[in-house]
Amino acid sequence: MECADPAGTVGAFLCRAGQHLRAAAIPQPRMEARMLLAHALNTDEAALLREPRQPVAPEAARDFAAMLERRLQGTPMAYLLGSAGFWTLDLETSPDTLIPRADTETLVEAALELPLDREAPLRILDLGTGTGALLLALLSELPRAFGIGVDLVEGAARLAGRNAARNGLAERAAFVTGSWDDALSGQFDLIVSNPPYIETDAIDGLMPEVSRHEPRTALDGGADGLVAYRLLAERLRDRLAPGGHAVLEIGSDQEVSVSGLFRGHGYEVLGCRRDLGGNPRALVLR
């Protein structure tokens, strides 16, 4: 199909990019084309729709072509755009971290339903913090809380620190590089974690955007997907303050196995909140 707008204009770039994305079976090709071109032009999508015959400068055209090629090869949009929304936050993203997802917001909802004193100086720990999404979302809702995020990857811990500053939360958050709680002492009122929980042999069967581009260490939960939960079941007791709670993300088929594992270590399973798709997602423990 021919593009109606003159060559070299916003409309022509959007038309041809949409055709390429559609041919690659990428959902919502026109929307993705607008997002990429708006990013290349440092403008918003509304401006593109208002002025479809605006010429695209050569430098922006080159940037757009490079991003489009990477998208056609499966690079996630969040990595191309360099940011993603989570809760009420805008978070920087990079291949050092998983991309924040709406399903993980279920953990924030579950934590905020706990009998927490929102005006108290709560202590929060986020293990495997990635972008810092969970910790920062909670700090944004708990005005006197302070939190520590830990990640095995130094680049992820640095990125989470930038996200704290980006969202005005740097004074109440600290991020460190380490393996789980190895570098920590003390106890916390609330512990959250989105640990790796995909079975090793199942990773290559995930969507290519995930399996080929997101960090494998943040996905791989071992042969049965439960390696991280076994470690957390052994360690969280020493990190939880009296009356403290933990909220853990689980896979959609792991409620029974993870609940049983923690009960076997003496924890009380208070429930499991479901995500928007109706799948078990946030396991609540004390």
Automatic annotation (TrEMBL):
HAMAP family with a match to the protein in the record: RF_methyltr_PrmC
Ranges for domain Release factor glutamine methyltransferase N-terminal: 16-82
List of residues binding substrate: 194-197
Residue numbers binding S-adenosyl-L-methionine: 128-132, 151, 180, 194
Annotated family: Belongs to the protein N5-glutamine methyltransferase family. PrmC subfamily.
Entry's Gene Ontology BP terms: methylation
A single GO molecular function term of this UniProt record: peptide chain release factor N(5)-glutamine methyltransferase activity
EC code: 2.1.1.297
InterPro entries: DNA_methylase_N6_adenine_CS, HemK-like, N5-glutamine_MTase, PrmC_N, RF_methyltr_PrmC, SAM-dependent_MTases_sf, Small_mtfrase_dom
Domain Methyltransferase small: start-end pairs: 119-202
Catalytic activity as recorded in UniProt: L-glutaminyl-[peptide chain release factor] + S-adenosyl-L-methionine = N(5)-methyl-L-glutaminyl-[peptide chain release factor] + S-adenosyl-L-homocysteine + H(+)
Domain of life where this protein originates: Bacteria
Functional summary from the UniProt entry: Methylates the class 1 translation termination release factors RF1/PrfA and RF2/PrfB on the glutamine residue of the universally conserved GGQ motif.
Alphabetically ordered keywords of this record: Methyltransferase, S-adenosyl-L-methionine, Transferase
Enzyme class: transferase
Protein name: Release factor glutamine methyltransferase
